[in-house]
Amino acid sequence: MTAFPAGTILGYPRIGRRRELKRALEAHWAGEIDDAELETRTAALRRATRERLAELGLGRDDSSIPESFSLYDQVLDAALAVGALPARFDALREPDGSIGLAATFAAARGAADQPPLELTKWFDTNYHYLVPEIGPETVFAPSSDRLVRQFVEAREDGFVMRPVLVGPVTLLALSKATDAAAPRHGGAHAPAFRPLDRLESVVGAYASLLADLHEAGVAWVQLDEPALVSESLPVPAVELAAAASVAYQTLGRAARRPSILVAAPYGRLGDDAWRALAAAPIEAIALDLVRGVVPLPTSGLEGKTLVGGVVDGRNVWRGDLEAAWSSLEALRELGARVSVGTSTSLQHVPHDVADETALDPRLVSWLAFADQKVGQVTTLARGLADGRSAIEHALAEASAALADRRDAPGVRDEAVRARVAGLSDDAFRRTDAARRRALQEDELDLPLLPTTTIGSFPQTAEIRRLRGRRDRGELSRAEYEELLRLEITTVVGLQEELGLDVLVHGEPERNDMVQYFAEHLDGFAVTRHGWVQSYGSRVTRPSILWGDVTRPAPITVRWSRFAQSLTEKPVKGMLTGPVTILAWSFVRDDQPLRDTANQVALALRDEIRDLEAAGIRIVQVDEPALRELLPLSRAAQPDYLDWSVRAFRLATGGAADTTQVHTHLCYSEFADVIDAIAALDADVTSIEAARSRGELLGDLGESGFERGIGPGVYDIHSPRVPSVAELVALIERTLQHVPLSQVWVNPDCGLKTRAYRETVLSLQNLVEATRLVRERAGIAGAVRVNG
């Protein structure tokens, strides 16, 4: 057995330092490059990553560099590696039955009239994974040689890599049952099928994959099992631990396999799962010691390596290396060999803070992006090998940066803190919802089943070019804003022509729904190259929330006022909610999130006041990340739900009774937070439902949800144009669970990433489907407002 390296990372950003993967994928999907050219470009990206990590100090030949690259999504990769391709895409398999690019991208993005896999959030991050579909009929067998090919590719360049794959327990825990999955034999009261029921078959396929890797010369393989740290999955933690015991007893005893590292990132590994992994005949366990803790002593650790994840893979702060060193020393007391690692894959942070030449150098000194975190790992690994004295200078530098950050101007604003401290309970609530509803019905005079969109319209290449010309000084501010007014005029006119009931201004001035606000609020900084993958080719550039938050001036008012001047129909004022601004930023870690959320909420409260003064009658405060931040530990969830709901209510609590407050949530498992959604006290909530084919509707019906609700009927994360019949079916399915007077009709999310042609066709079908449902229900011409 080859010894595990002294330092490693669990994964690295795969989008590329300059978004090379994004550009290659989108060129391929547009037909501009073929399969071979896509493979050539992505191989070059992998080569550049390997060379960079070696330059930063990870070994070329000791398996310390993980092969964590994915063309689209790591969960999809694992599902397809064992053959779990939905039957609707079987015709796209290669002639030998393997799964190539065509089937992979069809599962991810849809094909013709076949919808893609459902998309949802990866634990409590802003990364989205594709939900595998597994049933009793699913045939498991190795179906992709991509891991082997990428290992061989690296070896030819002189690197010995550590292939990374989502582990079998997590793969099954995150999967959904296929439509064909029926109750087991035994009658109506027999338990329903669960993907975890297929554990034995899946483990057999993994054993075959490991044998293939062994034959290729792989020394170490990493199997990621974050499901073992979560208490928020449908499968109880005790069952997941038992499944891990079965899986790793079996895989560990396989005769032909590489050494196995099981990684448990994103939180504290539960006691049952810890004991199961410790007892399994595997060689190494990686623990998240940033969000988790050093586990209790247990038997079975003799001969194993424990990888202490003490370098934060989730945030961009330089971190406390003294505290990290203390955690590693505590881990050593368990009696196993200790290595140092990151708490999670570094896919959640940008590449290199050295690229950010426009940031304040003092702020830069507090930060660590992926490359700097690799440096922290190698520094601590040197300390483990040579003793603390070898790294004393580095520990002192990190501590000095923490002290400088604590004392810097802007980190604390006493006026902001006094305002938050002086809040009364009245600031967190509006008047009775029934009273508001009656007043809003009179004010807005909307039809039953009102149609709207979520906010953004397509951000065309021309809009992006205009923004670039402005940034380069090629357009004056006046010229740029006149072009934005022309775009808003076009978007409002298009919505009038389509026949939508509640309009939006399309948000052409916004580069991102969080960054735009960060650019207008004190306490934030924005990056130029800080891209992070959201899913597939989609990337985001999280802002850095480093100080107390204030709003120097109104942010959205002039654009909303201008759009409203173009139409008699109501135009929504569009704001991003406090929880989402936190979730999609790199947030300061030196005070409770509750306090930071309230600061942001007060800035939004002031913005709503100014929107109302400008004549805006509907304000949407988007909170798509509400479920995303839900802690994986059940014990921590009540406190989170309390402060997150209160922050939203603080932002909206000053709105007039006649102002209809909307919110939007997307791509999460909503059953866990259905009560919190109701507690937001929004007048209307729009929510993702199309890709999941309305799975949340039963939860809505059972919960007795009483406000306006718009379950999305158009999946904007796929280029497919839904048919009128498909949309009618989704609307009518909604009406089986929710009273007609509450239902709105809308897409799943904003239209920013879509092209205009598919957007117009889809919205035409949405309006026509709504007309048909109204006609069938005999309500054409009826009037009401929001439910």
What does this structure look like?
The chain has 787 residues and is of the alpha/beta class. The strands form six sheets. It has a seven-stranded parallel sheet. The longest helix has 22 residues, at 477-498. 53% of the residues are buried. Residues 183-189 and 782-787 have low confidence and may be disordered.
Compact overview of the structure:
With 787 residues, this protein is α/β, with parallel strands linked by helices.
Provide the descriptors you would attach to this structure in a database record:
787 residues; 7-stranded parallel sheet; 5-stranded parallel sheet; 26 helices; disordered C terminus
What is the fold's blueprint, element by element?
Blueprint: H1 20-29, H2 35-55, E1 66-67, H3 74-81, H4 101-109, E2 119-121, E3 128-130, E4 133-134, H5 146-156, E5 162-166, H6 168-173, E6 176-177, H7 199-215, E7 220-224, H8 237-252, E8 259-264, H9 271-279, E9 284-288, E10 305-311, H10 321-332, E11 337-342, H11 361-364, H12 370-386, H13 392-407, H14 414-421, H15 433-444, H16 461-471, H17 477-498, H18 515-518, E12 522-525, E13 532-535, E14 538-540, E15 543-550, H19 557-564, E16 572-576, H20 578-583, E17 585-587, H21 593-613, E18 618-622, H22 637-652, E19 660-665, H23 674-679, E20 684-687, H24 697-703, E21 708-711, H25 724-735, H26 756-777
Parallel strand pairs: 1-5, 4-6, 5-7, 7-8, 8-9, 9-10, 10-11, 15-17, 16-18, 18-19, 19-20, 20-21
Antiparallel strand pairs: 2-3, 12-15, 13-14
Helix pairs in contact: 1-2, 7-8, 8-9, 16-17, 21-22, 25-26
